[in-house]
Amino acid sequence: MITKLLIANRGEIACRIIRTARTMGIATVAVYSDADARALHVRQADEAVHIGPSPAAESYLVGEKIIAAAKETGAEAIHPGYGFLSENAAFAQAVLEAGLIWVGPKPASIEAMGLKDAAKARMIEAGVPVTPGYLGAEQSLERLTTEAEAIGYPVLIKAVAGGGGKGMRKVDAPADFAAMLESCRREAKASFGNDEVLLEKWITSPRHIEVQVFGDAHGNVVHLFERDCSLQRRHQKVIEEAPAPGMDAATREAICAAAVRAAKAVDYEGAGTIEFIADASEGLRADRIFFMEMNTRLQVEHPVTEEITGVDLVEWQLRVASGEALPKRQDELSINGHAIEARLYAEDPAKGFLPSTGTLEHLKFGDLERVETGVESGGIISPFYDPMIAKLISHAETRDQAIDDLKNGLTTTEVWPVRTNAGFVACAIDDEDFRNAVLDTGFIERKGGKLIPSTAADDATWKVAAMLSTDRCNEAPFAGFRLNAPKRNTVAISGLEGARVIDLDEAWSDTLRVVSDDGDLYSTDAGDAPVMTGTVIGETIVVFNEGSAFDFALAARGTSQASAANGAIIAPMPGKVIAVDVSEGQTVTAGQRLMVLEAMKMEHALTAPFDGVIEGLAVSAGGQVQVEAVLCTVVPAGE
Length: 639
Description:
Blueprint: E1 4-7, H1 11-23, E2 27-33, H2 40-44, E3 47-52, H3 63-73, E4 77-79, H4 89-97, E5 101-102, H5 107-114, H6 116-125, E6 133-134, H7 141-151, E7 155-163, E8 166-171, H8 177-192, E9 197-201, E10 206-215, E11 221-233, E12 236-242, H9 249-265, E13 270-279, E14 289-295, H10 302-309, H11 313-321, E15 338-345, E16 347-348, E17 354-355, E18 358-359, E19 362-364, E20 370-373, E21 380-381, E22 388-396, H12 399-411, E23 414-416, H13 422-430, H14 432-435, H15 443-447, H16 459-468, E24 490-495, E25 498-503, H17 504-507, E26 513-518, E27 521-525, E28 531-537, E29 540-545, E30 548-552, E31 568-570, E32 575-580, E33 587-588, E34 593-599, E35 602-607, E36 612-615, E37 624-625, E38 630-636
Parallel strand pairs: 1-2, 1-4, 2-3, 4-5
Antiparallel strand pairs: 6-9, 7-8, 7-9, 10-11, 10-13, 11-12, 12-15, 13-14, 15-22, 16-17, 18-21, 19-23, 20-22, 24-25, 26-27, 27-28, 28-29, 29-30, 31-38, 32-34, 32-37, 33-36, 34-35, 36-38
């Protein structure tokens, strides 16, 4: 058995691996960049080694530094987690050549499944059904355009080396193909160093079904059932659950058997996931489920599989890497109950899901038995890495109960001042269609703004803020908050919508009462309304309601949004300018793309608000910009 393990990753997955390693008596070594010097995973590990500057390309993606850190600390093995170098066959080979143990599949297996076109060809040979499309080596625009027309629109462009939703574009019409191809190739080149693509027929009622597989060096391969990851936004998974709702026994047997064949076709060892796309227009059927790709690593959503099977997949990884056989046979594995995972992201749904960075001045997770995170109060959400704060996981006997438990966990989670998608995800899983398992990958796009909580505070939220403000008035907490009080107390507070004078006696009633007092944190119960919590942080009063945060102050104030002259194009976040499509003095039309920013591993296009002329162009491709910086101004024509 491995006795000392280096974890070539960061954040919640590093913390997750450390937890299992500790229970197995394995010492751990963390690596960290400048941005992560005080990160939770660094403090939890037995040792930590600094590997470079904050950008991943100069630290977590530099294999030589990671191998050197393992040698320096005497670690016998390297666990790559997910992302970064986890599916890099050359790095896996370098680890082995350095005399270290690679906690993952053999480099040849990674390579076989690393390029989507080659993987699909291998799956066809193994008798695994694949989506109709184009896998050819000819990559000219003319050839790809011709193939797309032959497949029939809509089509899906996918980077052959892609993953995690990167390098993927749906194209609805021929006129959009060239621009979408250019965008896809640029993102693929930046993310994976390979801009080759394949084309697939777009499935009109798609569900994303994946199967967890596990192999060892003794020829054993098992599956640990399926997960449904259909709730996605921009091809990024938001909710994952296991087992897949609506999956009958015959279809489960067929898809899981196909997944095992796929793993055996590449002589697979360790944890892996076979991803399928299902045409769910007539429910889940074995003859309408097609192979998409294989992820040759542990998945972000592995906890839901662990919850329904009782298996610690990280422990299995470490045992298999140490040369042991799989701990269980196929007939010893079974499904117990239902599990759902929500990814809590640092992003603002009300602003188009733009990433939200900064210090987590206040962080408290809701009431759930399992939360996987790599941050804590006082930690920092950095613009250098993925903006996931945590994974919230529920497990219950039934799907309905698991949904209820997860919704409660989401709506009682408190994060400030970083914005999150907690309220958005709570609305999504409480939607009638989700509860009835009417699912497909277009669910979130189709629901649109219905899932985005209002940014306007309701009356009850204003009253809670007013009650919390009493401490700011140098009064004892809730002084004068008595029914039938002889005098009336008022307080003036301001919020995003303006200022109000709140009658405290009216606020303090039998339907809005304090039920607990923990320092400066108060919980209230507004009758049948949701429970709210609040706290005073510096000069700001913050009320948490249904997963959303609302901020108030005693003095009147403006909004927290950036302000600039009409037509100013303002950076919505810190990031890198990767494309500038206009020049000084150029005439533009409303909706025309002006430039593209890259932040949090995502591209964000900035467009013209109206017809006009570009003035004050202050950036060029490759430059870094700060949040709220004025990048250029669109001056209305004729001015």
